[in-house]
Amino acid sequence: MTRPLYCDESIWIPVADGLRRRGWPVKTARGQDTLGDPDRQQLQYATENEWVFLTFDDDFLSLVASQGLEHTGLIYIDQRGRQIGDVVKTADTHLDTRADDDYAITYL
């Protein structure tokens, strides 16, 4: 996968940094000046840029399911009980096998 990841504000900065160190192109809400934007706008912003949306916030799953919002790939990571390194490794392993044209919702 070579499309950039868009990490919403729920993603810990060290996770975004860890993914960058592993060679993934990463955009963050902080870096894109979208901190505090409503969830709907965050998802729309990533979709308009054709970025894969990465989040810890399960509200995005509800938004997509109940409102049928479009996306260009959504990865939800349940971070409960996980250390930063584990989250980075889990995401990295998934991204290594994810096709560039995979617009699915993934639960990790």
TrEMBL record:
State the name under which the record lists this protein.
DUF5615 family PIN-like protein
Among InterPro entries, the record links this protein to: DUF5615 (IPR041049)
Q: Enumerate the spans annotated as DUF5615 domain.
A: 5-83
